[in-house]
Amino acid sequence: MSTLDRGKFNSRFGFILAAAGSAIGLGNIWRFPYTAGTHGGGAWVIMYIGFVFLIGVPVLFAELSIGNSTQTSPVTAFKKLVPNSWWPALGGLGVLTGFGILSFYSVIAGLTAMYAGFAIGGKFGGIDIAQSGEIFGQIVASPVWMIGVSFGFLLVTALVVRKGIGGGIEKAATWLMPILFVFLLILVARALTLPTAGEGLAFMFKPQLDEISFQGIVSALGQALFSLSLGMGAMITYGSYLPKEENLPASAMTIAVFDTCIAILAGLVIFPALFLVGAEPDKGPGLIFVVMGGIFDAMPASNLMAFIFYGLLSIAALTSTISLLEVIVAYLVDERGWRRERATWAVASSCFALAVPSALSLGASASLSRITEKKGFLDIVDMLCGTYFLTFGAMLICIFVGWKWGIKAAVAAIEHGGHKMPAVPVWGFLVRYVCPLAIFVLLIYGATQGANW
Ligand code: PFF
Question: Which structural domains are found in the chain, ordered by start?
Fold first, then answer.
């Protein structure tokens, strides 16, 4: 199939927005703050940033080089690069991983959209954290709401993806990302003018070395990969829609810096707000629903602020679900020759079937499951796909580029457009040795501890 039939990004700017949109998601605004909060703040945040650049960026380069040089999605890309090998199975693992992540991600994304709707209905005035917890418990216990919001989110995602790359994904990112940025800046301005801004800043940036644990190190690495959408071929797929002449090194760095800045800005919003009402930042995944939901009343224009906060989360989640769905659709289009429209609806509806048990599992523990120790279906899919498969995939991608395809070939692909890649020997060393080894240690530790990071 020719590049023209597959679609392509119309501009490098559009590609950067779409790829940054994939990276910036619930991982930044939901997972990052509560994980940082659980691991004591400052030191963990510094480790996370270190891993983004030491491990995440090298893997990002690896994925973009594979996609851009082959101009096709992962399974077909591996077939092109090493015919008659088992490497295409790595692409298959990515498709499976994307399917799993999309199924539980759309449940939480649906909840954020529902909360944005609550704000429009004026629900956030006059409630404290206890009442907010009660409301949350009622929602997750309602099968109709839970299934409904997940369905709605998948539907909107499919409506964008069916329109293709330039006319769907790029267009959506071009509209949504600036709104996301403006929403975030409004919230940062609000949070930094709260009397507890200093406390929030200190929590995020003051390294408390006694808080560092091995589990914290592992979770920082896992978060770096998840946040940059690495390990399942999303960046291979997006890179394949970018013309070969484009400046890949600059694009990759922009995406990584952008994604990290957004996570830090999200932390700058959430921590000062938490300290305003004396809430502890270690409340786990329910932080943004239960705890944040009860905080807006302490601010002027509570419902407007809540709308901006949950609207921001919904937008961030949407540009990520789009990329998750696209990985699977691209596989069916490139490898199986399906029409995009048919592939989109088939994948979205089967993913919805898998989202249903996740949506219902939250109600079983009457709480966002990982608040409690009890593991529900959503947690299991999250742990399996969002942690193990993703991490395993990232490790194999490094081994592929470092040892099979070769650093030389990958650098040639990256520099194809005439844009020099900086620090090639460093990158080669990281991809061949540091990344696979670090990820291996992470996987073994995760497997032995049964950690959900
Ligand atoms: N990077 C997204 C986030 O931080 O929420 C999650 C994600 C999207 C992971 C797409 C993997 C992926 F392919």
Answer: 3-449 (1.10.4160)
